[in-house]
Structure formats: C-alpha cells, structure tokens
TrEMBL record:
Gene: Pirt
Membrane topology: Multi-pass membrane protein
UniProt-recorded name of the protein: PIRT protein
Transmembrane domains' residue ranges: 54-78, 90-109
Superkingdom of origin: Eukaryota
Subcellular location as annotated: Membrane
Molecular function GO terms recorded: phosphatidylinositol bisphosphate binding; transmembrane transporter binding
Amino acid sequence: MEIPPKSPDGSEKSPQSKELMTSNTASTLCISSRSESVWTSASRSKWDIYHKPVIVVSVGAAIFLFGMVITSLSCIQIKNKNVYKMCGPAFLSLGLMLLVCGLVWIPIIRKKQKQRQKSQFLQTLKSFFFNR
C-alpha cells in the first residue's frame, strides 16, 4: 500500500481534493486566453476606448495633407518634378486609406460597446461558471 506524499505545508490531502485542485486549469486557461476587459466590469474612459482609431485618423489626415502638398509641388516648375509626381499620389492614397480605416473603426467599437452592455448578464454567468 502506497503512502501518498505529504504536501509542502505538511497537511494531508485526499486524492479527491488533488483532482479538484488540478481541475481548475481549464478555467485558468480560459481566463488567460481572454482579455481582461471582457471579464472585468470596470468602466473605461472614452480615451481608453477610442485612442487607437483617433491616432489612426490623425496620422492618416496628416499623411493625406502631406500628399496634397507634395502633389501641388509637382505643378510648380521645380528641378525634381518627376519625383513629386510619383510620391504625391502615393502619400495621398496611403493617407486616405488610414483615414478611412480609422473612421470605419469608430462605429465598430461603438457597436461592440453596445453589445457588451446588452450582454452584461451573460458575462456574469460566464465568469461565474469559468471562475469556479
């Protein structure tokens, strides 16, 4: 008959309690795979929610304006006219792409926030079952 090894703190544990101790790995794995904002109900400021799309929109607008300046320089008789004709439209398109991506990102975040508020009850149920 084998004697189960003692735990480091010296207390004896039954095999059933050992199984219960190892069974919580699924909930730990599930919690670590999710972001903290899904599991916590702490409210975040508007800047915390919208800072990434605002940065993308502002960088896109700056690049777009820079592209407009470069393109307008190609209209003036300058030494490197061909370089401005090539780079101007490239900056225009890149800036416009970033600007549109940021502007589309904002309504997506708003929709997610509304869905999160509607499913508050569902989240509490999830956290109750997964955190056991």
